[in-house]
Amino acid sequence: MGRRKTEMKRIENAARRKVTFSKRRSSLLKKAYELSVLCDVEVGLIVFSSLGKLYEFSSSSIQSTVARYTERSRGDTSDSIMEQIVQQRKMEADYLSSFSKTMEQLETSKKQLLGVELESCSFNELHGLEGNIEQSLQRIRKRKYQVIEEQISQLKEKETSFLKENESLCQKRKLFPQLPASASKEVPRCPSHQATSTHSNYNEVETELRIGFPDRGAMASSPSTKKG
After folding, report:
1. Lowest-confidence range among 37-51, 101-115, 171-185?
2. 3-class state of residue 213 by DSSP
3. Are the CB atoms for 54 and 46 separated by under 8 Å?
4. Which of 111, 148, 159, 206 stands the most exposed, by the fewest C-beta atoms within 10 Å?
5. What pTM was estimated for this model as a whole?
6. CA-to-CA distance for 220 and 123, rounded, in angstroms?
7. Contact status, residue 69 vs residue 77, Cβ threshold 8 Å
8. pLDDT value at residue 182
């Protein structure tokens, strides 16, 4: 009967878990010692139990092994960081190079569309450039006509609105009663005309001088009157 395969999961029974830990820990420490002796390598092993108890093994010194490991890890980390930096800079350089080429192509295309620097263009390139310009002109004209139609439509809407408003004002004007003809003739005089009329009335006041008692009715003429 063969040996039953151990299922790799946590042992729920605390006593069994403790016995298994003790056996396997001893076996692990033995294997580490055999590896260091047989292969002449530096081995360091650190184990903490579930209760926090420390078990360790080192072929030389656990402190020196840990220090060596820490130094090596830092070196690997530095090398990895430097490699990432170099790769990133390379990617940036490739991107800048591609961007520069794209900008040069766009600048050349712009000049060619303006009819500049056409000496290096072949017949096919000139033919294609001509077709692109014609298509651009067609799109520009189409958009221009659309803008004109939109403006005409807006002006028509404004005209309709003004006509409606004018018609509404005319209807309101018809609702007001008309003044009689006699009332239209009685135009009030302006203040200047009234002042002139008052001044003329003052000029027509009687200037005859009377001397004597009012109850006797004695009247006397002025010297200028007697002489006359």
Report:
1. 171-185
2. coil
3. yes
4. 206
5. 0.34
6. 130
7. no
8. 52
In the block, tokens 């077709």 appear at: 131
Checking 85-94 for CB contacts under 8 A at 24+ apart, the result is none
Q: Which residue has the higher pLDDT, 22 or 177?
A: 22
Instruction: Answer yes or no: are the C-beta atoms of 113 and 130 closer than 8 Å.
Output: no
Residue 88's Cβ-side half-sphere holds a number of Cα atoms within 13 Å equal to 6
From first CA to last CA, the distance across the chain in angstroms is 181
Least confident of 109-113, 156-160, 166-170: 109-113
| Closest listed residue to residue 62, CA positions, set 40, 77, 47 | 47
**Long-range contacts: 218-223, Cβ < 8 Å, 24+?**
none
Instruction: Write down the pLDDT at residue 228.
Output: 40
Residue 44: count other Cβ atoms within 10 Å of its Cβ: 19
Angle at 37 between CA 54 and CA 24, to 5 degrees: 40
Rounded Cα gap, residues 16 and 201, in angstroms:
142
Among residues 47, 20, 18, the alpha carbon closest in space to that of 32 is found at 47
Strands 54-58 and 44-48: antiparallel
Assigned token pair, 133 = 């310009």
- Round to whole Å and give the CA distance between 25 and 51: 14
